Amino acid sequence: MRGTGDPSRHTWGMEQGLRSAEFGPPGPLRDRLVALILSGRKTATSSLVSDYELEGEPLPEPGELELLLDSNDRGVAVLETLAVAVVPLVDVPWFHVVAEGEGHATLAEWRRDHEEFWAVNSPAGQLDGSPAVVMQEFRVVERLEAE
């Protein structure tokens, strides 16, 4: 899930005016997802289109750079968006689930986990039907030193 965050907390983000990339709320989940990203195992993510709309944020675009924030809202890496697609939740393909790197064994398991997460953490609240999902592929272009 994306958030607005404060990229000025890290000099790189402040100088470049980057949007922040926040993977889940601060805490154990974000810590795990950031570790997966930094290890190279997580190269994709999914978000709800409705969250972008409610937060007034544009969807990510290929070539866009974002500042990856840890649980302390510190910039730990710069991510480059490689590809973006919007599909109904029921049409998210297996290759995307694998690229998310979170260890889901089936599409049904991935959907259940994401639906539960979004029902609790999404500004849109409870999901109806098959909401539109933003599938984003990315790569780490620079790891940032701890301050």
Automatic annotation (TrEMBL):
Region (Disordered): 1-26
Residues of the ASCH domain: 21-142
Pfam families named among the record's database cross-references: ASCH
InterPro entries in UniProt: ASCH_domain, DUF984, PUA-like_sf
SMART domains: ASCH (SM01022)
Protein name: ASCH domain-containing protein
